[in-house]
Amino acid sequence: MRRPFVFPRGVSDADDLVARWLAQLQDELRNVDARVRERVVRDLAGRIAAEREAGGDAAAILAEAGDPLDIAADVRERHGVRERSNWREIAAVVLLPFGGVVIPFAGWFVGLYFLWSSPVWTVREKLAATLVLPFGTLVPLLLIAHGSLYALLLLLPFATSGYLALRLRTVRE
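Given the sequence above, the corresponding structure tokens read:
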């Protein structure tokens, strides 16, 4: 069921009202693919402009269009975008390489939980992050005592974590 758009207090100019409505919609669609987001906002802006040119009242047009929250939720559902909490993904990116050092073994498992519970990364990416170097930097740091060449193993968890962070950044845009 569509909720009517709640008009902000103190907004009297119709152009300002429409601009705020479209800005809220744009913001609510921030985690949707940029092309989809632009198309949805452009289509609705065009429809609103056409109805306003035909003599329609901006407030009535926006009320009929519905709440930007509902529209964005519908777009996310149609395009398979699931809401997520950012702190879990960031915690996964940090805990996978360093969690095993900060809280030996357990910290890495917490990072693993955050990784696998997130909808951001694909199963292939999750498997790679899990299997590339279990326990992150803990194992290479323990092996460095046996030879400095083991320090090269530190590159694996950093590369994996960097890749996950890069993917997280591209998913947000």
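Residues 14-78 form one domain. Try to locate this feature in the token string yourself.
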